[in-house]
Amino acid sequence: MEITIRRTASDAEREGCYTVRMKVFVEEQKVPPWEEIDAHDDTAMHFLVEDNGVIVGTARLIDYGDGTGKIGRVALLPEYRGKGIGRDLMWYVMGAGFRLFHTLILDAQLTVIPFYEKLGFEAEGEIFLDAGIEHRRMRIQR
After folding, report:
1. What is the residue range of 108's domain?
2. Which residues neighbour 12 within 8 Å (Cβ) at sequence distance 6 or greater?
3. pLDDT in tens, 101-117
4. What's the CA dihedral at 133, 74, 20, 99 to 10 degrees?
């Protein structure tokens, strides 16, 4: 494995990120495909994880307003999970985010809240459904 994490540099790379999202969220988690790609994708910063040039993970960062960035669509193909790659992707995205925003938020599926807590995020508010999956808002400030 030769893992690289960086911002996307082309439309083709962004399409590769969408492919990972479709595999993870639509095929694996049964999110309706029309809910996965949204209007935010046009203006978001997209990040990728590559293994020897093949895109295997992704995340995006959007301007949520008032000095807040929202991290979302964090996804890794199943064979890359549990190896610290997701943590490294999040550190990279958070670093980019804190260069632009003083607060970062995300909407975490309940099962991965402990993962985000280890990165310093704190859960807030009530549980809500997004694409039929239970989530909670999480926040971190620099």
Report:
1. 3-141
2. none
3. 999 999 999 999 999 99
4. 150
- Judging by beta carbons within 10 Å of its beta carbon (0-12, 13-18, 19+), is residue 95 exposed, middle or buried? exposed
| Distance in angstroms (rounded) separating the CA atoms of residues 35 and 110 | 19
Rounded to whole angstroms, the Cα distance separating 119 from 59 reads: 15
Q: Give the pair of three-digit tokens for residue 111.
A: 């099962």
Q: What angle do CA 102, 57, 13 make, to 5 degrees?
A: 90
Instruction: State the residue for tokens 């029309």.
Output: 34
Q: Residues 57, 20: contact at Cβ < 8 Å?
A: yes
What is the distance between the alpha carbons of residues 93 and 25, in angstroms, rounded to a whole number?
20
Q: Which CATH number covers residue 70?
A: 3.40.630.30
Q: For the chain, what is the domain count?
A: 1
Q: Quick check: 71 pLDDT over 90?
A: yes
- pTM comes to 0.95
**Single-letter amino acid, residue 68:** T
Non-local (6+) Cβ contacts of 33 within 8 A are 22, 26
How far is it, in rounded angstroms, from Cα 9 to Cα 85? 20
